[in-house]
Amino acid sequence: MPIDTGDTAWMLVAGSLVLLMIPALGLFESGLLRKKNAVSVFMQIFFGLALLSVMWFVFGFSLSFGPDESGGLMGNMDWVFLKGVPWDEALHYAPTIPGVLFVKFQLMFAAITPLLLTGTIAERMKFSSFIIFIASWSILIYYPLVHWIWGGGWLAKLGVVDFAGGIVIHTSVGMGALAAAIVLGRRRFFGPAIEIPHSIPLAVVGSSLLWLGWFGFNAGSALASGSLAGNTVIVTHMASSVSALIWVGLSWIRTGKPSVVAAVNGAIAGLAGITPASGFVSVEHSFVIGIAIGIASYSGIIIFKEKLKIDDALDVSSVHGVAGIIGSLSIGLFASKLVNPAGPNGLLFGNPDQLGIQAIGVAVAASLGFCGTWVIMKILDFLIGVRVSPEVEDAGLDISEHAERAYADEEEFKLDMDTYVESLEEKDEFFFNKK
Predict the structure, then answer these.
(1) How far does the chain reach from its first CA to its final CA, in angstroms?
(2) What is the pTM of this model?
(3) Please, which residues bridge with residue 94 across strands?
(4) If phi over 0 gives left and psi between -120 and 50 gives alpha, with beta otherwise, what is residue 307?
């Protein structure tokens, strides 16, 4: 099949929209955190984008989508450094766009997925440990899941489907976030006082840009322009809108006030949750799915943070994990070949088996995400430590890890730096050599 210029143009746009989600994630997360850690979030995300992009180019794409010689477990190394990936012909994964464009689109997924975990480890993880963590997480968790479902691996052969990443991305990240939060432990003075966002407008701008970028994320997964991509856009938008309303309503009932933070978190939960089903369900069913996502993800925060006292800083386990699980299972209920002839039917369309198949995929991703993250974090903690010192945490990662601040003028910067140095000198943990 020849390269289609219309499909190629759409995928160029879709990939750019997903790239927009990287700085949008930084705006969203930094706005919801304390200002003394705003720079650290952007550094993690921007550096992570560069590192994970290089990894994908060198070996990640080959391990994820390369020819399978391992019985459905992993691709081989035929495409390292993209050797043999055509720029003027298509790969079988996307038959109407250049092979390198498919690589680029999938690169954006490979970059943003581990970076979602920055919302969990925020304000207390060493930057050096973070680098090793996201690299290890990609190799040991993300690349295998991609191959198992999107690369034609063993879960794909069982019939598990995931249109744009509810299992591969959000379920694995969400359960990984839970494990990472447990290993790291709670932030100092954990409680309502440290949960106050330093810039709600920044978070709203970030969430709005994430919403925009998600259209490329989900509709781009159609890998072609046309009716499927169009339906995916409206399905995505509807589920996000409904989930946002649910979150505002529930928070209003609990606190007596309508919350902007609840609105943006609800929208993100809706986007994450509808992601796996967005290419298989109709817009009317997305409305129902949005309700379920909103209720379940909001309840997840109550259980994980308020009842179990797990300090998942920005509730990645609920906003992405719980939402992703609900959306992935909803395929088994609402998927219809009338929407996507290449996809399955769900229970409501005469195929009850699909629900069980989806549950297997969810269970595998959740188990690998949680257990794999736990092991990576424990090994890192044993070898080099994963958490900053109390002095560093109190001063903020911006000053202590990067010697930069998001907003301070020169005098404020010097004052904070002097205070930080003095606190370390008092404990004989810092040696300051003057020329």
Answers:
(1) 69
(2) 0.93
(3) 91
(4) alpha
How much is the pLDDT for 2?
87
Q: Is residue 195 classed exposed, middle or buried when 0-12, 13-18 and 19+ CB atoms within 10 A define those classes?
A: middle
CB 381 within 8 A of CB 188: no
- Residues 181 and 311 sit within 8 Å (Cβ to Cβ): yes
Distance from C-alpha of 264 to C-alpha of 270, rounded to nearest angstrom: 10
The interaxial angle of helices 99-115 and 5-32, nearest 10 deg, is 10
CB neighbours of 214 closer than 8 A, spacing ≥ 6?
21, 236, 240, 271, 275
pLDDT tens readout for residues 156-205: 999 999 999 999 999 999 999 999 999 999 999 998 889 999 999 999 99
Closest listed residue to residue 190, CA positions, set 202, 181, 198, 199: 181
Two tokens, residue 234: 């409206």
Distance set, CA 119 to CA 77, 99, 262, 355, 422 (Å): 32, 33, 16, 30, 30
Those residues with Cβ within 8 angstroms of residue 411's Cβ, 6 or more apart along the chain or in another chain: none
pLDDT tens by residue, 218-242: 999 999 999 999 999 999 999 999 9
Return left, alpha or beta for 143; rule: phi > 0 is left, psi -120 to 50 is alpha, else beta.
alpha
Q: Which amino acid is located at 320 in the chain?
A: H
Is residue 18 within 8 Å of 182, Cβ to Cβ? Answer: no
The total number of residues shown for the chain amounts to: 435
Rounded Cα distance between 235 and 280, Å, is: 10
- Give dist(CA 416, CA 393) in Å, integer: 13
Is 174 in contact with 327 (CB distance < 8 Å)?
Answer: no
Torsion of the alpha carbons at 281, 324, 48 and 418, rounded to the nearest 10: 140
CA gap 99, 218 in Å, rounded: 19
Which residue has 């900053």 as its token pair? 388
SS3 431: coil
CA 55 to chain centre: 17
Residue 129 CB neighbour total at 10 angstroms:
20
Pinpoint the alpha helices (H) of 220-282.
227-255, 260-274
CB of 213 within 8 A of CB of 231?
A: no
Q: Which residues contact 375 (CB under 8 A, 6 or more apart)?
A: none
**Closest alpha carbon to 19 in 99, 81, 104:** 104
Rounded Cα–Cα distance for residues 135 and 55 (Å): 8
Number of CB atoms found within 10 A of residue 131's CB: 14
Other CB atoms within 10 Å distance of the CB of residue 106: 23
Question: Using the 8-state DSSP alphabet, how is residue 97 labeled?
Answer: S
